[in-house]
TrEMBL record:
Molecular-function GO term, any one: dioxygenase activity
Alphabetical keyword list: Dioxygenase, Iron, Oxidoreductase
Record lineage: Bacteria, Pseudomonadati, Pseudomonadota, Gammaproteobacteria, Alteromonadales
Family that this chain belongs to: Belongs to the 2-oxoadipate dioxygenase/decarboxylase family.
Enzyme nomenclature, EC number: 1.13.11.93
Cofactor or coenzyme needed: Fe(2+)
Gene3D superfamilies according to UniProt: 3.10.180.50
Official protein name in the record: 2-oxoadipate dioxygenase/decarboxylase
């Protein structure tokens, strides 16, 4: 089973790297810094990945989650983002060395009519059994949209616009600060990232959350990549890298969940 999990995350990671050049740079920077200051080679641990979709029956959150449930994951939390018209769930594996999974979906019927039309046109072409395919979670787009349609989506939902350009793939990976030897705090890591030229997501502050909610998160802004739309090319935000530090709860156990108020701001790492 672990081989299957490793295989899935390996495919997701390789796909993510193809459109997130900064991820490799961040990865190398942190590993190099860790080695330089501790003398030990560091393997970056992935705290969680995030996936996005629409609440359309054949490709909804539960259809994506089924891939992880089949690998032994279980649902551990539900989250609502009323302003962004999103809902989400997170999943954990009994073996806590496996990454957590955060899956969100846009509530299409809550969007303006013109946005609904574009989304339905995009998703109409998807085969009814597409979400059951082994490679679905890193299958990208199943449609062609125009730059005009992208602009309409951006005006109403950065999330929907991101989906129109990128489809099904990991929206971000997350470095677990807890598994690093040298870094003591997210602030220390953020300083290194900024000094190295990376732009942080400052929505809700550079660090979202903290010890009081048992989880601190930060992220760099998404790379901008040129996408071929139906009628031409356009530079749009792709994916980003996140960083998480988890704290012990009063029970003495490390918090494993997510904080809706922080996640709400992390979504904005792909804002254009």
């Amino acid at each position: 089973m672990h081989n299957k999990i490793d295989n899935l995350f390996s495919h997701l990671w390789q796909d993510y790297l193809t459109i997130t050049p900064s991820a490799k740079k961040v990865h190398d920077l942190l590993e190099g810094y860790e080695f330089e200051h501790s003398g030990k080679s560091a393997k970056l641990d992935n705290d969680h990945i995030a996936l996005r979709t629409f609440n359309i029956e054949k490709i909804n959150l539960d259809k994506l989650a089924a891939h992880f449930l089949a690998l032994g994951y279980t649902e551990q939390g539900q989250y609502d983002f009323a302003e962004k018209k999103l809902r989400a769930k997170h999943f954990e594996h009994p073996d806590d060395t496996q990454p957590k999974v955060f899956i969100s979906e846009l509530i299409v019927e809550d969007m303006p009519a013109e946005v609904q039309q574009i989304i339905l046109k995009m998703t109409d072409n998807i085969a009814d059994n597409a979400a059951q395919q082994d490679n679905f979670l890193y299958s990208g787009t199943h449609w062609q949209t125009s730059t005009q349609e992208y602009d309409i989506l951006v005006a109403h939902s950065e999330y929907a616009a991101w989906m129109s350009a990128w489809g099904f793939r990991a929206n971000h990976f997350t470095v677990s600060l807890n598994h690093m030897g040298h870094f003591q705090s997210l602030a220390q890591m953020n300083t290194l990232l900024k000094d190295s030229g990376f732009v942080l997501n400052t929505s809700g502050g550079e660090i979202k959350g903290g010890p009081e909610v048992f989880l601190a998160q930060s992220s760099i802004m998404a790379d901008k990549i040129e996408v071929q739309f139906a009628n031409g090319r356009k530079l749009v935000p792709s994916c980003f890298y996140e960083f998480a530090q988890r704290y012990n709860m009063p029970t003495g156990k490390l918090y494993q969940g997510f904080v809706a108020a922080s996640a709400d701001k992390i979504f904005e790492s792909t804002n254009s």
